[in-house]
Amino acid sequence: MTAALVLDRVSVALDRRPVVVDASLAVPPGCLLALVGPNGAGKTTLLRAVAGAIAWQGRIMAAGQDLAAVPPRVRAQMVAYLPQQRDIAWGLPVREVVALGRLPHIGFAAGEGAGDRAAIDRAMTAAGVEGLAARPVDRLSGGERARVLLARALAQAAPLLLVDEPTAALDPHHQLQVMEVLRGEADAGRTVVAVLHDLALAARFAHRIALMDGGRILAEGPPDAVLTPDWLARAYRVEALAGTHEGAMWVLPWRRR
């Protein structure tokens, strides 16, 4: 199977300091890949490089195309990116914020077509914000804003979806909802790369895990091959408990080492 996303020795330096070093991955279509690792491991920086938000060295391929050579609007049609920051500058109604995800397809001059309206409605329903459509986004809670911005990324309908800490600031119910959405997007054929700090959510929902530390990818594979006591001790300096329930893996960091 041809990989939907290929990273070939990708490196990033910020202020001349290496943050990502020789990262290589091949992510198949229809895969939810969880990018995990301790604070400062390089996860967000690597995701920003794939999104085209910062410069990188090496090669990043999506759908067989070198992303460095793809025009910005085409790239925006190929790659949707939900950053870690949840800032929204204007108090637009929620539906208008979600509709911004359609701009790569319709531009600023054209109005929404039937397909755009359907994509917006589907995204709002998936993120559980359809009941907030007319609410000003600056009057929402942090968790509600996070789900609105996820809906905006979903409305973009790009084959590659990048999300950075999508469950941050969410209660357990909405954490599960968001992870179910991301897993569903992958099961429907999209490629999803999610930076996660919650190892339990990563273990349960991700098809594959990439573990980073010190700017390098230490291990990549199915959850039970990566979230092992040895790898977790090496990357996080913790002792962890793990098991399975209803056919899914669970993992619980138990004590510091």
Automatic annotation (TrEMBL):
Q: Which Pfam families match?
A: ABC_tran
Q: Which SUPFAM superfamilies match?
A: P-loop containing nucleoside triphosphate hydrolases
Q: Which domain of life is it from?
A: Bacteria
Recorded hits in InterPro entries, A to Z, give: AAA+_ATPase, ABC_transporter-like_ATP-bd, ABC_transporter-like_CS, P-loop_NTPase
In what residue span(s) does the ABC transporter domain sit? 5-239
Please name the GO terms that the record assigns under molecular function. Answer: ATP binding; ATP hydrolysis activity
Q: Which Gene3D superfamilies match?
A: P-loop containing nucleotide triphosphate hydrolases
Give UniProt keywords alphabetically: ATP-binding, Nucleotide-binding, Translocase, Transport
* Main function: Part of the ABC transporter complex HmuTUV involved in hemin import. Responsible for energy coupling to the transport system.
The name on file for this protein is Iron complex transport system ATP-binding protein
Q: Which organism is it from?
A: Stella humosa
